[in-house]
Amino acid sequence: MPKKSKKYLTRFLKWRYKNISNKTFVHIMSLVVGFLAGLVAVTLKNFTYFIESLLKMGVVFSENQLYFILPTIGLTLVYLYVKFVHKKPIQHAVSSIIFSLSKKGGLLTVKDIYTPLITAPLTVGFGGSVGLLGPAVKSGSAISSNLSRLFHIDTKTRSLLVACASAGAISSIFQSPIAAIIFAVEVFTLDLTMLSMLPLLLASISGVLTSYFFLGNEVLFSFSLTEGFQLKDTPFYVLLGVGTAFASIYFTKMYFAILTFFKRFKSPKYKLLVGGIAIGIMLYAIPPLYGEGFGFINSLLEGNHLKALGKTPFDAYVSNIWVVIALLFGITIFKAIAMTTTFAAGGAGGIFIPTMVMGSALGNVVAKVINNLGLGFSVSESNFTLIGMAGLIAGVIHAPLTAIFLIAEITGGYELFVPLMITASISYLTTRNAMDYTIYTKELAKIGALLSHNKDQMVLGLMEIEDVIEKNFKAVHPDMSLGEMLHESVSKSKRNIFPVLDNDKKLMGIIVLDDIRQFMFDRELYDSIYVKNLMHAPPEHIFYGKDTMKQVMKKFQDSGAWNLPVIKDGKYEGFISKSKLLTAYRRKLINYTQ
């Protein structure tokens, strides 16, 4: 930062500390980050639509062969940007934010502000089957994080403002302020207190007003409720809940399976080539997989399934309703594949909107099957299309309240609250029992970076092993005599435990002062007893980089030890003592709950 700018910033900070309370400043900042996150969302949408409009003017989209080319072009442009400008692999937006909140105090880089604004429109605008919500949340959160750092805001407040930015971005994209607040609470595991509620509310309002200012009263879904909830349809909503639960499990498993498959390709170029070709083939057969898919959802809500399907190789058969059902079910199956392939090939985007597309297709399929079985049943296809979206959101990201309020807000369908609750709760409970973690959280759970509403687990997740390792232990060699050990280590140490290390600093065992107390004053044994005769294995080991703090705490509990050695890359690193661990835990708990 230039000296002049730094001087003005210092003056502002001094003025702020004197004239504005911390609480008021947080409220002002929540309005600012909500506005900026909303602006990011608007920019992303407009830039993506601009790219799509250019392509529509330059090519004839009715020629399905062109779908084969466009995703590869978009992925290539993203690849070139990442290689020569960003110079780091693109991370999943929401997962990287959760990791930042858990392990980095909510710190995000400046690159995280502008990279999503470039890579996501290139991916989606050229046909990548992903959404824009994740990149909008990532960019808005990065703006909030860097502003917080600039204004010297503490870690806990910075994390709250990052969540406020996510609420502002979601509120702007969907024009659903309540669902945006709930998303921040469910996904980022905030405690919903008045201290967090008001900033989230202000950021959400700021985000939605930004959207109204730039986009007017434009709505994502042109839907008007014509049929409300009917009690006789309850079993069908239960059926839809079960169906969306299984679809959510399929969605998640397919996501990780495809990512694992693409890890076989060491070069990003091969991933791009294979992914681009695969996406092109899928788009050729199923054009609605192109881009985000809001047009597809709107066509289903209008009851125009032929428009939703577009031109396909199966146009000659779409007069048969069962062919239509099969094609829509194909979208349900292949949306997850197309989305994950886009990610694996190097594209940037989010999973939230593809989840909605998949859910809308599945809900419409269930309704069409019920209506065409010839059993005399009749349900609203548009209602099932909406509620299918809620079921997939609840199941895939484990956020049932977000799903319920989002669909209710963006459609004005509050009369569907009961069926929304039925389907979303069944989907959530079923998938939660089948899978402990979501696409957002599975990898984070492996490294102990997962946030939780459980305060104990949350605090343990915020702690770092590095902060509690003690290294002021005198090491001894297994070939040292008792006399050498007493003279060179015991007499110079303030600790009562000694790690036994070989020449490569690998831990061979430990010696506790109690182990040698009976020999310490018998000089005749100084040259006849060696360390290797006295050492014993520690009751447990802690592995740096592998064990989470929760696992460390459990090892202390199970072993009953007071000190445990830490192993890093196969070598001795130090000890963790139970007293220091518990002291660090208490301090972190106090800071977290203040």
Automatic annotation (TrEMBL):
PANTHER family this protein is in?
CHLORIDE CHANNEL PROTEIN CLC-E (PTHR43427)
Q: Per its record, how is this protein called by name?
A: Chloride channel protein
What keywords are assigned to this protein?
CBS domain, Chloride, Chloride channel, Ion channel, Ion transport, Membrane, Transmembrane, Transmembrane helix, Transport
Superkingdom of this entry's organism?
A: Bacteria
Ranges for domain CBS come to 469-528, 535-593
Q: How does it sit in the membrane?
A: Multi-pass membrane protein
The membrane spanning regions, by residue number, are 20-44, 64-82, 157-185, 197-215, 235-258, 270-290, 316-337, 344-366, 386-408
Task: Tell me the InterPro entries matching this sequence.
Answer: CBS_dom, CBS_dom_sf, Cl-channel_core, ClC, ClC-type_chloride_channel
Q: Where in the cell is it found?
A: Membrane
Q: Which SUPFAM superfamilies match?
A: CBS-domain pair, Clc chloride channel
